[in-house]
Design goal:
Structural class: alpha/beta
Number of helices: 13
Order of helices and strands: EHEHEHHEEEHHHHEHEHHEEEHEH
CATH class: Alpha Beta
Largest sheet: 8 strands, parallel, barrel
CATH architecture: Alpha-Beta Barrel
Number of domains: 1
Bound molecules: D-mannose
Strand order of the largest sheet: 1-2-3-4-7-8-9-12
CATH topology: TIM Barrel
Shape: globular
Helix content: 25-40%
Distance between the termini: 16 Å
């Protein structure tokens, strides 16, 4: 298990590379060029500038999260071919700079969604990301976007880049009436376009789950259960076609048995990387994010790390969203302290499992 940390780049992250380097056991970052719009080519020069900084800090950059997929690809428009060609170029450019895994998602329009980005946890005064489907009652997607932007404390949020959301209404219209199966066929078309390049350049594609793990606003979604991932890996036989199993996203639905899902796809060699975090279920489609500790939430972190250890021990993982603690201010979910505690805890579990 290679422990990494998500880093948004020196121009927009509140956390520095040196701080990341000082977290015990940290080997690298999951990198991101947060100024790139979906569909654009990531140039070698841009990639080299980012990875150069990371390497100079003594960290690796073997995983990129995310190269976002253009809506024309997800919605299957004829113009998708041009964007797939760009994606192929980006894969080659990333591979030339040592990137081995690319995380992406295939969620129409919205990446992850929360109804509160800083919900007070009354027991200890910290705060975390929170979701209650009831809070969406009577609220359209536009209102949610406005509220999320206002609550983001001036940070860009991954998946909520303004240019992606600028044409929101028109984009939403394109998905009207689209079934999950149609969306899956668009994913197949995308994978058929890019996986030959991945094979040639030794790059693994890892599909991030829908977050939360069910369809929202009537949009089709195809990555939120074991059955969905069975269908996803069946779309293309390449071992480069894998899952980025995010325990918190999948775990928002208590019906998902996370350790069993890891074991299933780990044994198949189809886990490309993982995000590990905990969630606390508060009711039907109602949860908040918790510290990583098993006893603070509803996921069994020991069983999760054990499943990685037994079936896919060589993958990159990262502690996912943390709470805001110790008066830290930063990008919601992506502060330093709680994620650093999460990494240390996960490494502790790993050592205990390895030695026992
Ligand atoms: C949220 C993240 C997601 C993830 C993308 C991958 O905090 O986990 O934005 O990076 O869905 O494409």
């Amino acid at each position: 298990m290679k422990m990494t940390f998500r880093w948004f780049g020196s121009r927009s992250d509140s956390v520095t590379l040196q701080q990341i380097r000082q977290i015990p056991g940290m080997t690298g970052v999951m990198g991101f060029l947060d100024y790139k719009a979906a569909g654009e080519v990531w140039t070698e020069q841009e990639i080299a500038a980012y990875t150069g900084e990371v390497h100079a800090a003594g960290l690796a950059c073997e995983v990129i999260e995310s190269v976002n997929v253009h809506e024309d690809i997800k919605s299957g428009l004829p113009s998708r071919n041009e964007y797939i060609e760009n994606y192929r170029t980006t894969i080659r450019n990333l591979a030339r700079h040592g990137v081995e895994v690319i995380v992406y998602n295939f969620m129409p329009v919205f990446d992850w969604l929360r109804t509160d980005l800083a919900r007070l946890i009354p027991e200890d005064g910290s705060n975390s990301l929170y979701f209650n489907e009831k809070d969406l009652d009577g609220m359209g997607p536009l209102e949610i976007v406005r509220r999320t932007a206002e609550a983001s404390r001036g940070f860009s949020l991954p998946g909520w880049e303004p240019e992606r959301l600028a044409e929101l209404e028109a984009t939403l219209k394109r998905y009207e009436g689209m079934t999950a199966d149609q969306l899956r066929q668009n994913l197949r078309y995308f994978l058929e376009g890019i996986l030959p390049v991945c094979e040639e350049y030794g790059v693994t594609m890892a599909c991030h789950p829908d977050d939360p793990a069910w369809p929202i606003f009537g949009l089709p979604r195809i990555a939120h259960s074991q059955a969905d991932y069975e269908a996803l890996v069946a779309l293309h036989p390449s071992p480069r076609n894998t899952a980025c199993l995010c325990t918190g996203s999948l775990g928002s639905n208590p019906a998902n048995d996370i350790p069993a899902i890891i074991r299933r796809f780990g044994q198949m060699g189809r886990v490309g990387c993982m995000h590990i975090r905990n969630v606390k279920h508060l009711g039907y489609r109602h949860f908040r994010e918790a510290s990583h500790l098993s006893t603070d939430g509803d996921l069994d972190m020991y069983a999760i790390v054990k499943a990685v250890h037994d079936t896919c021990p060589h993958i990159h993982v990262r502690p996912d969203h943390g709470r805001m603690i110790w008066d830290e201010t930063g990008r919601p979910g992506y502060g330093l302290y709680d994620r650093a505690l999460g990494a240390t805890y996960l490494n502790g579990l790993w050592e205990a499992i390895s030695k026992s």
